[in-house]
Amino acid sequence: MGDLPGVVITGVSGRMGQMLVREVQASEKLRLTGAVDRAGHDWIGRDLGLAMGGAETGLLVTDDAEAAFAEARAIIDFTAPAATLGFSRLAAERGLVHVIGTTGFSDEELDELAEVAKGSVQVRAGNMSLGVNLLTVLTRKVAEALDTEFDIEIVEAHHNRKVDAPSGTALMLGEAAAEGRGVSLADASDRGRDGITGARKAGDIGFSAIRGGDIVGEHDVIFAGPGERIILRHVASDRALFARGALKAASWALDQEPGFYDMLDVLGLN
């Protein structure tokens, strides 16, 4: 196992962080060499396995990302935009693969990530499941086939602790629909309807967000036309599928040239 490429998980105390740790520990392609969390968290300095309620691993949780990255070949990062930007710069300096599942970036932050990716290998996706990425391909193709008589609405549902909306996956699907229509999502996006909004504008791509309970992730792309509707749907019932996709991305990216990639590249769907 010692000769497997090392990977660091950031945000290890979070639900996705802990899921990623378990998946890496079970992996035959990667080994866990670092566990990072934010300064001041009560896991800092503790054995990772004990902090997660399991057996001792000998790996201590740290807030020193630079030290944790020293033995790694890749970083898997599901944290927050500001933290991810810092990790991206550090990963680029060290020539490490950076797999990003973080969502909620501003346009300016995305521009900064793209600049960093010019000199590093970066895989970023709003969703790392095979099914969702197939859904983006289907969404683009259906949008190409249907004109603006068909309204496009993206409805997403997530657990009540999710902090950003629309979800990164919903935005991925919106981008795919916009690409199929040959328009910019920034120009066609319709969000947050409330009050007297007037009639829907032809060609707009609408977003609706549901937050409640422990919903892992549900996404519908609705094409609503005169007398008929086409609904493309993906339902995630196990968060582990996102972790498995992230590990697949990290293994794949180790052999790639510097640049930005997404899960369609990883899965050979581009």
What do you see in this structure?
The protein is α/β, with parallel strands linked by helices and 270 residues long. The chain is built from ten helices and twelve strands. Helices cover 36% and strands 23% of the residues. The longest helix has 16 residues.
Structural class: alpha/beta
Segments where pLDDT lies below 50 for 5+ residues?
none
What's the CATH class label of the largest domain? Alpha Beta
Helix-strand pattern: EHEHEHEHEHEHEHHEEEEHEH
Which superfamily, in CATH terms, is the homologous superfamily of the largest domain? NAD(P)-binding Rossmann-like Domain
Number of helices: 10
Number of domains: 2
**Shape category:** elongated
- As for the CATH topology of the largest domain, it is Rossmann fold
> Which percent range fits the helix content?
25-40%
In whole angstroms, the N-to-C terminal distance is: 33 Å
Mean of all residue-level pLDDT scores: 95
The CATH architecture name of the largest domain reads: 3-Layer(aba) Sandwich
User: How many strand elements?
Assistant: 12
Which value, in Å, is the CA radius of gyration?
Answer: 20 Å
| Main beta-sheet annotation | 7 strands, parallel
Pathway: Amino-acid biosynthesis; L-lysine biosynthesis via DAP pathway; (S)-tetrahydrodipicolinate from L-aspartate: step 4/4
Binding site for NADP(+): 38
Active site: 158 (proton donor/acceptor), 162 (proton donor)
Subunit structure: Homotetramer.
Features:
270 residues; alpha/beta; Rossmann fold; Dihydrodipicolinate Reductase, domain 2; 5-stranded mixed β-sheet; elongated; 4-hydroxy-tetrahydrodipicolinate reductase; NAD
